[in-house]
Each structure stands twice: as structure tokens, then as C-alpha cells.
Amino acid sequence: MKRRSFLKTMGVGASAAVVSNFKPSAPALAKNRIEWKMVTLWPKNFPGLGTGSQRIADAIKEMSDGRLTIKIYGAGELVPAYEAFDAVREGIAECMHEAPYIWIAKHPAMAFFCGLPGGLTPLEHNSWIHSGGGQELWDELYDRFGLQGFLAGNSGTNMGGWYNREIKSTEDFDGLRMRIPGLGAEVLTRLGSVTMNISGGEILPALQTGLVDAAEWIAPYADLAVGLHKAAKYYYGPSILEPGPANPLTVNKELYMALPKDLRAIVRQAAGHETTQMTAEIDHGNAEALKVLVHRFNISLHQFPEEVSQKLFEVSDEVVSEVAEEDELSRRIYESWSEFRSKAIFLSPYSTHGFMASRGMYNNSVQG
């Protein structure tokens, strides 16, 4: 499948026609109080993601002393999950808690501001956005759509997914029907997989009915909550294709700029605070949930063979570099991201990741 046609058929391209039937509504105003609506790509109060959305709304209400309140609509409550982008553009909702790699049919460079196969860890992504010029490039891209994005969480390094058979070589991806979003789907497509971008709530029935043979959702905390262990036995990690997807708070820029200056600052600060809060909740939840999956439900836990991991990195580099061909802005985004990634890779053996590798070796020797 050609890259351009692939991007246009990722399951979100048709959403605009549905959303365009809605009429935008101005924010409710009463005694200098403003009410916003937030749409999300996950159920309300879903562990990590939904609880993060609620923390953002609660923080905004508290810091504004009730002058700005946000009502949250989980996936499908106001609009379907994958129509959230157009809902915010059209003013049906003023903001969304999202994952930009879902929108690559609208512009492939969207993926740089969520997560890329073979890309950056959550901390590295935050560093590029806040200190490496990423935010300015993100602003330039989202301006084309009348939106403004703020980092507001990260689901952490994901697991490599649930499979109904073992993955022993790259040949095992040939013909595999797998749920996976973003550019990671293109990587597997080039290995012969048939990929589908279905929303989180549809993954379990898709596995149970055989619509898909495998699925990558998030990590143990979220995967246990969805019950994916009921439909597949083999659990692989870490993910090479989703090393740290960010979840921004994205606002309709016109409506955001219409807010008083102090309320705009409150929205930014509430989003920024959730960047650390969500990661903390999910990391803790993952540590607890993985033990449950292994010891209570006896799932078969694996790492990908080295040959598979290296092939995934190789194809990922090809797929990501091709995004730079889309237009001049994509080229600048890719060059900025790629330059930072190279520096981060050079640093990593002497920083957190070097420490973690040494800690793992020590722990294995003590236990072994």
C-alpha cells in the first residue's frame, strides 16, 4: 500500500462529513462564568487517561474559582471518539483530550506531537516540546486547523501488544490482522500485516470475534481494565512502535483566545500539571497490574526477539523519514525532531536508561 493512500484511509478521514452537520455553539456565560465542553478519545474516568481528563477539568475549576468549568464527554457521548478533532474545530466542543497520531489522515506530521515508531520516550518528548523547539512547530501545524495544543499527559512506554500466537520472527507479522494506530500501523503494513485503527472500546470484541489477531492498546494498567487478557494469551513488551504517546489538551484557538488572559494561563497550567500526574498514575498502575496479569491470570509475558526489534526500528526509520516529504513544514518538524533524537540517544547510556540497564543486570544477578 502506498504511503499517501495509507494515510488517507486510517479511519478518520470520513469523520468531517458527520461532524459538519453540527452547529457550533458559543460558550455558556452566566454572571461572568464560562462553561466549556471537553470531548475525549476514551471513556469517562478510564484509568490514567479518563482520570487525567477529569483532573484537568477539576484543576481549571479550582484555580479559576469556578469562573471556567468544563464538562467532560467520554468517547461516544457527544461525538464518536475519532470525530473529536472536527468537533473542536467546529466549536461543538471547546477542547479535547487527545492523541494526535490518530489524525495522520489530516496531516501525517500530527504524529510527531504524540508518538512515533522508534521515537522518543515520554521524558524525551517533553524535552523536545518544551525546550527543543517542538512547541513552536506544533503551534504552526495546529494553526492550520484553528487549534492550540498543550502537553497534558503521556501514557508512558506502551506494551507491544496482545497476540493469539507467539512472535518468533518478522515473518510472523505477515498476514497478521492487528489493531494499531498512527505510523506504527504503516510499519506493520510493510511487514505484511493488515492493520486497523479501531477505538479502545472496540478492541476486546474485535479480538474475541477474530476480527483481529492482535492488538496494541496501551500498557498493563489500561489493558487489564479493558480485559484484553480474556481474549489473547501472549503479551509482548516493550513497544518499539509506541515508546511514549503524549496526550495533549487541545483547544479551539479562537475560543481559547477569547478567554480572559488569566483564564488562558490557568488552562495552560492545568494541562502542564497533568503531564506529570498522568505518567505517575499510569507508571504506578502498570507496576501493580502486570503482577496481576502474570500471577492471577497466567498470561504469557514476552519480549520481542532481537531480530524482530531491530527490524521494527529499521522500518520505523524509513516510515518516519518519509513524512518529511509531505511539505516544507513537515521537513522542518522532522529535522528538529530527528536532531534532538540523535542527541538523546547519545546521552541515554550515561543517563536514566544507562542506570536502568545496570540496575536490571544487578537485580538479575541477585535473583539468579
Structural account:
This protein has 368 residues and is an alpha/beta fold. The longest helix is centred in the C-terminal third of the chain and has 35 residues. The N terminus is likely disordered. Helix 6 packs antiparallel against helix 13 and helix 9 packs across helix 11. It is 46% helix and 12% strand. It has a domain of 196 residues: Bacterial extracellular solute-binding protein, family 7 (D-Maltodextrin-Binding Protein, domain 2), CATH 3.40.190.170. The strands form 2 sheets. Strands 1, 2, 3, 4, 5 and 11 form a 6-stranded mixed beta sheet that branches. The chain has a 6-stranded mixed beta sheet with strand order 8-7-9-6-10-12, covered by helices on one side. The protein starts with a helix and ends with a helix. The radius of gyration is 20 Å and the shape is globular.
Defining key terms:
368 residues; six-stranded mixed β-sheet; alpha/beta; D-Maltodextrin-Binding Protein, domain 2; 46% helix
Strand and helix layout:
Layout: H1 3-8, H2 15-19, E1 28-30, E2 33-40, H3 49-63, E3 68-73, H4 84-90, E4 95-97, H5 122-131, H6 134-143, E5 147-150, E6 161-163, E7 177-179, H7 182-190, E8 194-196, H8 203-209, E9 214-215, H9 220-226, E10 234-236, E11 249-252, H10 253-257, H11 261-295, E12 300-302, H12 306-323, H13 328-347, H14 352-367
Parallel strand pairs: 2-3, 2-4, 7-8, 7-9, 10-12
Antiparallel strand pairs: 1-2, 4-11, 5-11, 6-9, 6-10
Helix pairs in contact: 3-11, 5-6, 6-13, 7-12, 9-11
